Amino acid sequence: MELLPIIHADADAFFAACHMAEDSSLRSRPIAVAGDPGTRHGIILAANYPARSYGIRTTMRVGEARHRCPGLITIAPQRELYTAYSRRLREIFDQWTPLVEPLSIDEAWLDLTPQMDRWHGDSVKAGQALQASILSHLGITVSLGISINKMLAKQVSDWNKPGGLTILPKDDISQRLWPRPIIELFGCGPSTARRLASWNIETIGDLAKTPISALTSLGIQGERLKTRAQGTDYSPVVPPRITDRQSISVERTLPYNLAPDALTDQSWQPLITELLIRRTSTGLDGRTLVAKYRTSDFTTHTRQITTSQSIHTAAQILTLLHQILARTPITQPVRLIGLGLTDLRLPTTEQMTFWQNV
């Protein structure tokens, strides 16, 4: 039997799931975590699966979401709650293997190689036991992808959400992975997918079969994507050392190009929320805020500002962001925005505060 030692675990609708775990009456009701649930102009940060059945998605305005689902329950984000569940999730992962590499607050890779004897070489059995343990101890579900390497495990972990377990043996790559659209390949963003499509590379299989010489204009990214498409990226699962981290960042491609005057504080709010959650989960402080945006001509702009104090709150980030954009205003339509923290260090004894003005 082929060994499939790598698991990618991804919590289902994590932010919403934390609230449902705290209040079981919410489990069957449509709920959404929203930046400003008291108004019609807030933005959806996360939605559970009953809400998603109404077409409610992340970044949708609360007003539109309530129009689609009049019974929608909106909940203000609670950073400390998500961080606590993330920590407990990691504690369970650590019981399965010492080789755990977090990918975000609610997902991680696990390399079962050191523990395969414990499971008699059966990673599916290990995965099912992991799902059962997380459900029993945390009250949330996770979807798993299991394969020969971590990139393939990541590819398939969301194929059967929520609560699914998908395996992808090496022999199944050409039949099950290659027919899927190129945009689904991990690390392939919308702009790269469009560029590849212009070269008649529309599926993952198309890319896997494309000579590397045809991808030279993509540089190292082209090599990485091709290797992932072929299923031959055997990057190791590496547990992070807290002091190794150089930066924390988040970004998202906008559903359509936004004119500079349409890029409001609310446009940045989901990124601010996610950035703060990631900062807390790392246990590091940052003193430099980085703002990134990509204009409609695919030019990427990066600006930063450094402070003398650690950045802990949404209010701080928004103030610094205003200063950055005041210095170098955006003058063209924008298709992607991002935020990051650098100059990371272990916390000092300064008093830490929680979220403000989210």
What do you see in this structure?
The protein is globular, with a radius of gyration of 21 Å. The model is unreliable at 349-358 (pLDDT under 50). The strands form three sheets. It has a five-stranded mixed sheet. Strands 9-12-10-11 form a four-stranded antiparallel sheet, with helices on one face. The protein has a three-stranded mixed sheet with strand order 3-2-4. The chain has helices at 14-22, 49-52, 62-68, 79-96, 123-138, 150-156, 173-177, 190-197, 204-209, 220-230, 265-282, 314-327; strands at residues 6-11, 31-34, 44-47, 73-75, 100-104, 107-111, 142-147, 165-168, 248-258, 288-295, 300-306, 334-342. It has twelve helices and twelve strands. The longest helix is centred in the N-terminal third of the chain and has 18 residues, at 79-96. The chain has 358 residues and is α+β, with helices and mostly antiparallel strands. It has three domains: 1-171, Reverse transcriptase/Diguanylate cyclase domain (Alpha-Beta Plaits, 2-Layer Sandwich); 178-230, DNA polymerase, domain 1 (Orthogonal Bundle); 244-342, 2-Layer Sandwich (Dna Ligase, domain 1). Helix content is 34%, strand content 20%. The protein starts with 5 loop residues before the first strand and ends in a 16-residue tail after the last strand.
